[in-house]
Amino acid sequence: xxxxxxxxxxxxxxxxxxxxxxxxxxxxxxxxxxxxxxxxxxxxxxxxxxxxxxxxxxxxxxxxxxxxxxxxxxxxxxxxxxxxxxxxxxxxxxxxxxxxxxxxxxxxxxxxxxxxxxxxxxxxxxxxxxxxxxxxxxxxxxxxxxxxxxxx
Length: 152
Prior knowledge:
- By secondary structure, this protein is an alpha/beta fold.
- The chain has helices at residues 54-76, 118-131; strands at 9-14, 17-21, 36-39, 83-95, 98-112, 141-144, 147-150.
- It contains 2 helices and 7 strands.
- The strands form 2 sheets. Strands 4, 5, 6 and 7 form a 4-stranded mixed β-sheet that branches.
- InterPro entries: KH_dom-like_a/b (IPR015946), OsmC/Ohr_fam (IPR003718), OsmC/Ohrsf (IPR036102), OsmC_Ohr_Peroxiredoxin (IPR052707).
């Protein structure tokens, strides 16, 4: 596969807040941009509640990569499922005087209709985490608590 690039532009707006946009996510027919506010989280001086922070985005990148990788592997493996969702938690720590997300906990939940597929689905979730490009690009520990349930 060739190299790909993903462009993101950040502009400061006020205080500890800015706007994050990507020219690649612009709706070509309406010229609307797909932007989100980003800010320092409230745990830090001057931080703002209720706005996406770099820490949230980091954690979201890991969780969303697990989902998209699972969707691709499940499709290629002809796995049928009713739903996929994944909670996540990024753990921020001060390590050797630097703030790091030391661990990302993932809580993937998949609903299936065939009990005989439970172990196979669990293996695909584990394979998805190992194949996730974001997980492979970071030094944070990734921990999963997998839940597969059967819809009656």
